[in-house]
Amino acid sequence: MTVLKSEELQFRQGKFQLHDINIEFPEGKMTAIVGPNGSGKSTLLKLFARLLKADNGLVTLDNQPIHKYKRKEYSQKIAMLPQAKEVLPSITVKELVGYGRVPFQRLTGPVSEEDKEIIAWAIRETGLENMADRMVGHLSGGELQRARIAMALAQKTSVLLLDEPTTFLDITHQLELMKILSRINKTHQITVIMVLHELQYAGAYSDNLIVMKRGEIYQTGKPQAILTAQLLKEVYEIDASIKFENNYPVIIPKN
Ligand SMILES: Nc1ncnc2c1ncn2[C@@H]1O[C@H](COP(=O)(O)OP(=O)(O)OP(=O)(O)O)[C@@H](O)[C@H]1O
Fold this sequence. Notes:
Elements: E1 2-13, E2 16-26, E3 30-34, H1 41-48, E4 56-61, E5 64-65, H2 71-75, E6 78-81, H3 93-98, H4 113-125, H5 141-153, E7 159-163, H6 171-188, E8 191-195, H7 199-205, E9 208-213, E10 216-221, H8 223-226, H9 229-236, E11 240-245, E12 248-253
Parallel strand pairs: 3-8, 3-9, 6-7, 7-8
Antiparallel strand pairs: 1-2, 1-4, 4-5, 9-10, 11-12
Helix pairs in contact: 4-5
Adenosine-5'-triphosphate binds at residues 13-14, 16, 35, 37-43.
């Protein structure tokens, strides 16, 4: 079954245009969106998150056009974690994770027991138990990214959209993050859709790959089937060989 789908989606911003985007994100799978800088990956994610509105075409969630959902209802179904560019507020990890419960809360009154349990669950899932009371401004890049993911998890949605979750992290923390996302996906059947630049993680961790080039979908499919030397040449304009070892694509440039 498909949860999220677009048909003939079109969107223009300045000189850039997304053309006829027809894609499906299968339920409960991990999908990576890859492509060169400026190919439209973040824009596409924002259209699915309803942060932007398409000029033409249709996006559906569980067969219903996404604009038919009330804002609160939609944020109970899809969580979006944008690129980590925001200025950090002066709050604790637990409070940051609590923001994920906002779509479920009344405007006034104490945090419910259910909300507290979900916040604790999201903190456990991301291994932040021993830093729940730390100020977010004092966290390392890897810890902060885990806290941001915990906030998105606390929204308890069935779909998680992540824009470049591994940016600014070293290899240890990139791996740690990919493992957390994979575990969340497999244990809780959350559909994970992530924009990634690192082809090695996109290849190793996604069930399904979407490759973009200049505002269009160049190709979709299983990583091992579509990540080829021809794709590297046509999409990234590099001459390189590519082979898979233990599910990881190994790319060696020729010059
Ligand atoms: N608000 C805007 N107004 C006009 N053009 C924009 C706006 N936001 C983005 N663009 C342009 O749209 C194009 C696609 O941007 P987008 O951020 O979706 O690409 P991307 O594939 O995510 O890139 P990157 O990998 O560098 O993050 C780029 O050329 C960008 O300059």
